């Protein structure tokens, strides 16, 4: 859930007050890290992305317009930082390698056991990393961060229709992967 940042604190940071920026970091660090972790799925990458995001926030705070929600502006910076990292991962072909190296999704010690909610969410996050960066971003912001489509459109600089379309295709791709995993698990039995 989004956090509330006092208007006065933002104005002090915009004026270049480093102590106020430290307070802003204290208020936002868990929030920023959480977004990055949901986007990247790796704690070390999320930590690096959060630090990089705060550097960008400090450098770009003068561009923040107070008629927009601060959290929307903050989301935009964090998401764009994470998208850059995801693009780098895609170039290096490490997304699929990471999934293959850490987990065999087709086997389980008890086939009839239902996943607990946290395990299921972890699988969904892992599977969502296979999506395009844009679909992954929309999926994470909508289904994991529970943001509305209008706010996502602002964050990602896309139309509301593009958000709906990317969300539809992301969910469809995830559903297809889950069905194929379930079939593979059934065939293995």
Fold and architecture overview:
The chain is mainly alpha-helical. It has two domains: 92 residues, RNA polymerase sigma factor, region 2, helix turn helix motif (Rna Polymerase Sigma Factor, Chain: A), CATH 1.10.1740; 96 residues, Winged helix-like DNA-binding domain superfamily/Winged helix DNA-binding domain (Arc Repressor Mutant, subunit A, Orthogonal Bundle), CATH 1.10.10. About 12% of the residues have low confidence.
Write a brief caption for the model.
By secondary structure, the chain is an all-alpha fold. It has helices spanning 7-14, 18-40, 43-60, 70-92, 95-102, 117-128, 133-144, 149-156, 160-188. The termini are far apart.
- Unreliable spans are 93-115
User: How much of the residues is beta strand, in percent?
Assistant: under 5%
C-alpha end-to-end distance: 41 Å
- Rg is 18 Å
- Tell me the helix content: over 70%
What class do helices, strands and sheet pairing give?
mainly alpha
**What's the CATH superfamily of the largest domain, by name?**
Winged helix-like DNA-binding domain superfamily/Winged helix DNA-binding domain
The average pLDDT is 80
Profile the largest sheet: none
Q: What is the CATH top level name of the largest domain? A: Mainly Alpha
Number of helices: 9
Q: How does CATH name the architecture of the largest domain?
A: Orthogonal Bundle
Q: What overall geometry do the principal axes of the alpha carbons give?
A: elongated
Q: What is the total tally of β strands?
A: 0
- The name CATH uses for the topology of the largest domain is Arc Repressor Mutant, subunit A
* Number of individual domains: 2
